[in-house]
Amino acid sequence: MKESWQRNLVVLWFGTFMTGIGSSLIAPFISLYISTLGNYSKTELNIWSGLVFSSTFIVLAIVSPLWGRLADQKGRKLMLLRASLGMAVVISLMAFVTVAWQLLILRMLLGAFSGFISNSMALMASSAPKEKSGSVLSLLTTGSVAGTLIGPIVGGILVNFTGYRRVFSVTGIIMFLVFFLALFFVKETFKPIEKKDMLSASEVWKVIAHPSVIWGMFFATLITQMTNQSINPVLSLYVQELMHGQGNITFMAGIVAAAPGIVTLIAAPFLGRLGDQVGQRKILGFGLIFSFIVFSVTATTTNIWFLIVMRLLVGISDAAILPSVQAILAKESPQAVTGRIFSYNQSAQSIGAFAGPLLGSAIAGFIDYRYVFVGSAILVVFNLINYFSHTKELAKHS
């Protein structure tokens, strides 16, 4: 007989899997979709792509702490329902836009309703045994990664057969399914907390044993998201350039976008279990060093197949970095403030996902696509400095 947290893990894995599919079906092709909404120069298209892609994340960064406080007060399941239903409605409306600014507004609204995956993480972090947090959160990560892996490929096929707008309709249907999955199958034992009994923002940090570790993880999340997302808004344009405008560009762009997930899906459970044994700090350090090497080499890309191989290798660093950060946050966060700590991390992730595409599209527009990866490698250096300066407390217990 499975315990309740184990049953929730199964349900939430499928929920995050479907959310991953829904959120990634159209993402690699946003710049191509925008190009159908008006006549833009290369620089204008790059900037519009960066704005539309990033707008979701800056709004999410602002609202996440508010949702996190509500999650600690009312429960995480309510946040799962709020996120999935809101995303279903907003994404469905994207099929009807006629100009770029309408898509921009809807992407901003999407940010206000997002957070299914982060709340799934918070629910599992607060309910699963602490000694299993690394393997549990790594396994849950594979759900969203698997969905993100499949999404761009399916999206590329759908675009070819149905056009861009139908993809938004399909995505909306998927998110409605996620809503019903959470409504009927996720079980949470949660006693609502009166507003007067909630810890203030300053009190949250007083109950945390090692605040510097938490801040270090937030920064690690922010920089990792910047490096991962920087190429995304112009990815299809870069693929188009590497392929010299010949061949099935949308499908190959989907392959490139999905490539990191292939290895992450395989490596994350193994690295999660290894982290529980040897310490998550060591796995995190390995991931950061490896990502620096990969981004540096990717900057030398001259053909599409080399790019695919290097993006596959990004999956190894992602499998090491992201679950390790979440496991460290889970272990360092008292249950009473888990929702807010994970929401703060969501804000850091969103700021990185906002800044990364803007930086990447600016570099691509004014210099060249491959220099986006040079910028990513430089950012990883700052992340390594953060790692060595903010995880000293973890080293003492490793």
UniProtKB/TrEMBL annotation:
<feature type="domain" description="Major facilitator superfamily (MFS) profile">
    <location>
        <begin position="8"/>
        <end position="394"/>
    </location>
</feature>
<feature type="transmembrane region" description="Helical">
    <location>
        <begin position="12"/>
        <end position="35"/>
    </location>
</feature>
<keyword id="KW-1133">Transmembrane helix</keyword>
<keyword id="KW-1003">Cell membrane</keyword>
<feature type="transmembrane region" description="Helical">
    <location>
        <begin position="104"/>
        <end position="124"/>
    </location>
</feature>
<dbReference type="InterPro" id="IPR011701">
    <property type="entry name" value="MFS"/>
</dbReference>
<dbReference type="InterPro" id="IPR001958">
    <property type="entry name" value="Tet-R_TetA/multi-R_MdtG-like"/>
</dbReference>
<feature type="transmembrane region" description="Helical">
    <location>
        <begin position="247"/>
        <end position="271"/>
    </location>
</feature>
<keyword id="KW-0472">Membrane</keyword>
<feature type="transmembrane region" description="Helical">
    <location>
        <begin position="283"/>
        <end position="308"/>
    </location>
</feature>
<protein>
    <submittedName>
        <fullName>Multidrug efflux MFS transporter</fullName>
    </submittedName>
</protein>
<feature type="transmembrane region" description="Helical">
    <location>
        <begin position="136"/>
        <end position="161"/>
    </location>
</feature>
<dbReference type="GO" id="GO:0022857">
    <property type="term" value="F:transmembrane transporter activity"/>
</dbReference>
<keyword id="KW-0812">Transmembrane</keyword>
<feature type="transmembrane region" description="Helical">
    <location>
        <begin position="79"/>
        <end position="98"/>
    </location>
</feature>
<feature type="transmembrane region" description="Helical">
    <location>
        <begin position="47"/>
        <end position="67"/>
    </location>
</feature>
<dbReference type="InterPro" id="IPR036259">
    <property type="entry name" value="MFS_trans_sf"/>
</dbReference>
<feature type="transmembrane region" description="Helical">
    <location>
        <begin position="167"/>
        <end position="186"/>
    </location>
</feature>
<feature type="transmembrane region" description="Helical">
    <location>
        <begin position="207"/>
        <end position="227"/>
    </location>
</feature>
<dbReference type="GO" id="GO:0005886">
    <property type="term" value="C:plasma membrane"/>
</dbReference>
<dbReference type="InterPro" id="IPR020846">
    <property type="entry name" value="MFS_dom"/>
</dbReference>
<keyword id="KW-0813">Transport</keyword>
<feature type="transmembrane region" description="Helical">
    <location>
        <begin position="369"/>
        <end position="388"/>
    </location>
</feature>
<dbReference type="Pfam" id="PF07690">
    <property type="entry name" value="MFS_1"/>
</dbReference>
